[in-house]
Amino acid sequence: MTSTPHPITADLARAARALAQVSRHDIAEHTGLEEELVRDLEHGRRTITPQLSDLLYRALEEFGVEFLPVDEAAGVGYGVRQKFNPRTVKRLENWENEGGPAGDDDI
């Protein structure tokens, strides 16, 4: 497993999940972790190991957030933002709702 660009901290995990507007259950299901463990990690009650950091990082990115690294030169700390702006999100939602049920692709 490759390492993420920077480790996920408890506050960053909480902020990213809130920004993605997904539940702890969604994160747990996506990562294969227990929901209680996700809660404990977000509240700093459990240590976020490099392996857990990788799992959370990838899951949260798939849910539409982008992690921002520390920029020492600019004096900016790490952070998180939405991967897409609101206009793009609206277009993606429209595309997902277009059409009807998927049909058979048998040729």
UniProtKB/TrEMBL annotation:
It comes from Brachybacterium massiliense. This is Uncharacterized protein. InterPro entries: Lambda_DNA-bd_dom_sf. GO terms for molecular function: DNA binding.
